[in-house]
Structures are given as C-alpha cells and as structure tokens.
Amino acid sequence: METPRKIAKPSFDEPLCSHCGLCMGNAWPEEESLRSCVFNTGWLGRHEERLFGRRRNPADEDELAFGICRSRFNARMKTPVEGAQWGGIITSIAVRALETGLVEGVVTLHGTMLHPKAALAKTRSEVLEGRGNKPVLSPTLMALHAAWRAGLKKLLVIGAPCHVHALRDFHASSPLLREMELHVVGIPCTDNLESAHLRWVLGHISKSPDTITSMEFMQDYRVHIKHTGKKIEKVPFFSLPADVQRPGVFSSSCMSCFDYANGLADITVGYFGAPFSKDWKTQWVIVRTEKGDRLFDLVREGIDTSPEEKGGNAVPSVEASMEATIRAVLDPESLAARKKLPKAAGNVLCLISALRGPKGIEFARYSIHIHALRNYCFVRRHTPEKFDTLVPEHVRELAKRYRIDRIFDSPEATEG
C-alpha cells in the first residue's frame, strides 16, 4: 500500500463540508441543499426542538451526554448476521423494514471502507451488500436523490450525524420531501477521514494495511483492526503515532461536530456504551422516538436485551486527559515532539485504564465529553465566526463545568 509520507497542514479557509451527499445529486438545485447543510444551520438545539418538542436538559447528566430518548439498553443478536461488522442489528432492522412493507427503500452505503458508494437498496440482497462500517466521509444522501426520482414515499435512511442533520432539516424545510415518510437509523460517529488520509493512517498503525477489513477503538483502550481471515490486530491507543492524531488527519468537519451519539435519529445503534465484548457482538441501543420503537419491534424477537452497565466515573478521566487533548488542538505542531510509546508500555497503560477507568455508559460519557470539549476549542480557534452557529447550548454548559476557558485562554494556548 502506497501512502504519502506526510499529510499537508489543514487549510481552515475552505468551507466545512462532510461530503454528506445532499448537494451532490441532481434531483434538485445545489442551493436548495446548502440551506440545510449542518454547517449552515448548526448542531442539535433547534433541530431537537423541532423533532422532540423541546431541547435537551443540561441538568440531566444522561440527557446532556446521550440526548433525548425513550429508552437505552444493551442488545445482542441471537443469530448474528454473517459479515456484519458487529452483530448486525442495523442490517436486520433494514431488511425487516423492507420485508414488512414499512418502507419501500433503504438509503445506505455499498462499496468498501476506503471507497464507499451511496446506494438505494430495495431488496434484501441489496441491504446485505451494505454490511460493515465505512469510517470515511461518505456521500450517503446522494441516494436520497434516487429515492425522490423513483417516487418512493416511505424510506429508511441509515446515516451518521451529519447525514441525519441535513436530512431532518431538508425534510422539514423543503417542499420536495414533505410527502415522504422517513424512518432514521443513526450510527454513532466521530473523527472520520478522507479516504486518502485513512490509507495513510492504516499504513502507519498496522503491520498489514492491505488486508484490513474494519477497525474500531474499543473500551480496552486499544484500536482493534480486523483483517481478512478474521485475524485481529490490537494497537494500544497510547502507542499510536502522535502524527496520526492531529488536526488535518481527521476531517475539519468532524472536528466541528457536536453530535457523536446521533441525537436526531429515531434509533441510534452503536457499541461504545455497551460493555466490552471481545467478539464484537454486544451493541448499545438508544430509542429516541415512537418510530424508533417501531423499528426495534421489527427485530425484537431475535435479540437478547439487557440493562446498561456502568462502571467508574467519566469526569476524572475527562479531567485527566482534557488538557493534553485540547493543547493538541490549539497547537497541532506540538504533537511532533511527542515520542511514540513502545507497544509493551502501551499495553500496560491500556490494562490500567481498563481496570480503573470508566466502563459501559461511563465510557460513552467520557468519550462524548472529551470529543465535545476538544471540538469546542477547535471551532473557537479555527472558525470563530461559526462558533455561535455550530456549538449548541448544552456543549457550552459542558465547557463551563470543565472550565475549558482556563486552558484555552492560558498564555501557552495563546502562543500556540
């Protein structure tokens, strides 16, 4: 695998864009789509108010982190879907929604993790073709153009937060989709990359980048990398090369995102709030709306559910890693001086972190808090003119609690 030796410094003069695909088709004018771009309308806030009738309550610790919901629980497919990255809950929901006639089509992704392609699936086999996560910026909503042109009236959309925000706003504000009934399955998402950057990262963290089929950052504080032949490579987070973690590697649009848990979906299905499972089969489900309940009911009989698990406390872990995380945003070049920790030492730190650190939904809370605070500083530093639009009120409240401004406004940060 050929990889560039160095990623160019990020350009913050370019417009923020997650390549969601809404303005990349030709069923309606580009300017119609751009009015619903999340980087023009902002994250959560009034969008939640439109969907749920209110905004989230920052005094409710769970709602502040995970969003408005009806229920949350762990779930595990009794018979996992072959070839799915996790147990296959999302795939099963999509298949059943088609088979029962709840929807006429599914907006999803085909292709590989490096080369995803927007797809409108109208058969079981076409849904199954979309199995597996694609951790790159993906034009999923291009398939919405195809659905509209085909005259579909009932649609299931599977997407990341940027897809779901644009979809919700476009559905509410544009007359084009008002007759279409939408069901939305959300995937928790953070820190995606351009395909070329992902190739570069894989080449720097894996012994065999050409055979990788998927990867995830897990609750044992390791990056688990699956290869063809079901081999799993585990890289301690603490031993990752510093250069692959700096702004400019991860997309600026992802560094400006404040909806890790996909708060506008009818149902969010992920893993990071579930207890650690070596076989990648236990998932975390957040049901947010009546439609979300209806979608889960389609597969309920084939799933074992259990209450959320909780261990440790997210707050001290956030406080312990917050300053280094934020300084890396404020002064990316400082990462160049950071030495890569040997793998053996990294594994020791992983073991200590897994034993003493947050677990279950506390791990999810930790991850959501630290990313929200990091992105708060990223937007404030690099696109301050967008701050009022992009940063929702509950994230500003979170920043106050952790006293982020004392880091941001420190002399070292100012010099950076």
Please supply descriptive tags for the structure shown above.
single chain, 416 residues, alpha+beta, Aspartate Aminotransferase, domain 2, eight-stranded mixed sheet, three-stranded antiparallel sheet, 17 helices, 13 strands, 37% helix, disordered N terminus
Strand-residue fraction?
15-25%
Structural class: alpha+beta
Biggest sheet: strands, sense, closure?
Answer: 8 strands, mixed
The oligomeric state is single chain
N-to-C CA distance:
35 Å
Q: Strand arrangement, largest sheet?
A: 3-2-4-5-9-10-1-11
The mean pLDDT is 89
Shape: globular
Structural features, described:
- The radius of gyration is 20 Å and the shape is globular.
- The protein has 416 residues and is an alpha+beta fold.
- Strand 4 (154-159), helix 8 and strand 5 form a beta-alpha-beta unit.
- An 8-stranded mixed sheet has the order 3-2-4-5-9-10-1-11, with helices on both faces.
- It has a domain at 30-192 and 257-310: Aspartate Aminotransferase, domain 2.
- It contains 17 helices and 13 strands.
- Helix 11 runs parallel beside helix 13 (361-382) and helix 13 (361-382) packs across helix 15.
- The protein has helices at residues 30-34, 38-41, 46-52, 61-66, 89-99, 124-128, 142-149, 161-173, 195-205, 290-297, 314-330, 343-356, 361-382, 387-390, 393-401, 404-408, 411-415; strands spanning 71-77, 105-111, 116-121, 154-159, 181-186, 212-217, 222-227, 232-236, 267-270, 282-287, 303-306, 310-311, 359-360.
- Helices cover 37% and strands 16% of the residues.
